[in-house]
Amino acid sequence: DKGTLGREIMTENIHYEKLTWTEINEAVKENKIILLPIGSIEDHARHLPLDTDSFIVTEVCKRVATFFRGQVLVMPTVVYGYHPYRMDFPGGITISWEVFTKLLEEITLCLAHHGFKKILLINGHGSNHPLVQIAARRVMLEYPDVQCAMLSLWEIEEFQDAFREVRESEYPGGASHAGEVETSIYLALASQNVKMAEATKDISFPKSKYFYTDLASEKSPKTSTPVKMMEWWSTLSKTGAIGDPTKATKEKGIKLLNAMVEGLRKIIIDFKDRPVREIEDKHVHKVDAPSFYRYPKKQIQHPIKIVYISPEMESSDVYKIPVEFMYKAIADAKKANIEINISCKSSPSHDYKHQIQSIERFIQLGIDALIIHPADLKPLKPIIQQAIESGVYVVLVNLLKTEEYADLNITSYIGFDNYISGQLSAYATVDYLGGPGSLGRNKTESPSVDLYLD
């Protein structure tokens, strides 16, 4: 119905945060799709509230979720976005691009960790777009069996078609920010919060054939290839708007909102049925981790803090040798003007529980690297993984087979084969004694040279 909002908002079974942990498990079993609305808090001229982007994207997601009878869950909206260029107008809350991207990545990584396989990020703010796209790609690097996609509301084809039918503002520029589109949709959703008496046309930015902005894409002799450049907002707008909100009506808003919902509904249906394909690595060598970046390492500052956790060192000279080598390495590092602090921690009776406690404490202390001789790798894996995800470089030292630690994205592994090391020790002993000779009284052996020389 073009005259009314498409559906009543039914909140039952669509809000992620209203579920219990047991219901989350059921949602995973049922392969439910996750929608994450993403907006901003920023000025929208004199007539619209700061929450315009967040409010609209949230309402679109809630409405489309009701079509799927509980098979689509809507996450709490990420209301803070990226817009530092707008801080010459009061009210905006901008998040640095690094923090914003990392926030989205960590939210979606949590969803993937819990078992959700289909995650759709829905963006409602222009400058968020490239950062949301990066975050979605990062999740799929970490979880190749998860599909994480994104789109911005104005890209929906049904919306574009509907707006062309009702548009009255000039192109380009009449529907960029707080203009005909956003004002119409806000009027349809909550007209009591729109100050139409304050709405004024503002298309004062310097337009050219290549430098222009508009939510709609149209063929026009006035425009050609759009070149992206974001200048400080006060150099583009006098009021905070770029557009003509005076052309906005509630009736237009209803039509545009319904078109967005319908277009997103079709996208979700297609997304739901999209198959996940196996990665086929084309390298000639074995690549253990499908992710190129995996867990990005933190920036290390001097002094570099390294911890070595080994078995009880007092009872055996074997475990003292690596410590001696590390102190020699520290001396070499200092010659190269690299400052290193190293701590050696032994665990009584080679106890993995004590090692877990030690690693937890060292993560909290912000160490840069962990070298560990695991007492028992299997129960230690969760805390080692936590260290890796915290940006700690991890080196394992042990008698391990590759498959035992293949699921950990460690920095390096140092190990040896007992049988081969025994052979080498024997060869070294024979060499030290000057070659083959008497092995006990009245017994002489004459092995070939190949047996004891490497």
Keywords:
about 450 residues, 13 helices, Rossmann fold, elongated, 5-stranded parallel sheet, 3 domains, alpha/beta, 4-stranded parallel sheet, 11 strands
Protein model, in words:
With about 450 residues, this protein is of the alpha/beta class. The chain folds into three domains: about 15-270, 3-Layer(aba) Sandwich (Rossmann fold), CATH 3.40.50.10310; about 305-415, Rossmann fold (3-Layer(aba) Sandwich), CATH 3.40.50.2300; about 420-450, no CATH class. About 35% of the residues lie in helices and about 10% in strands. The protein has 13 helices and eleven strands. The protein has helices at about 20-30, 50-65, 95-115, 130-140, 155-165, 180-190, 250-270, 320-335, 350-365, 375-390, 400-405, 420-430, 450; strands at about 35-40, 70-75, 120-125, 145-150, 175, 240-245, 305-310, 340-345, 370, 395, 410-415. Strands 8-7-9-10-11 form a five-stranded parallel sheet, sandwiched between helices. Strands 2-1-3-4 form a four-stranded parallel sheet, sandwiched between helices. A two-stranded antiparallel sheet has the order 5-6. Helix 4 (about 130-140) links the parallel strand 3 and strand 4 (about 145-150). The longest helix is centred in the middle third of the chain and has 23 residues, at about 250-270. The protein is elongated, with a radius of gyration of 31 Å. The N and C termini lie far apart (about 85 Å). The model has no long low-confidence stretch (mean pLDDT about 85).
